[in-house]
Amino acid sequence: MSWMSQLAVLVYGLVMLACLAAVRAAAPQSDRRGDLYHWLACIAAFAGMIALRVGQVEDRSRDAARGWAQQAGEYQSRFELQLPVVLLMAALGLVIAYVFIRLWRASRRGSRARLVLLSRFAVLGLVPLFGLRLASLHQIDRVLYSGPLRINWMIEGVICVVVGGCAALYFLRIRGRGRR
Question: Which domain holds residue 136?
Answer without folding.
Answer: 3-178
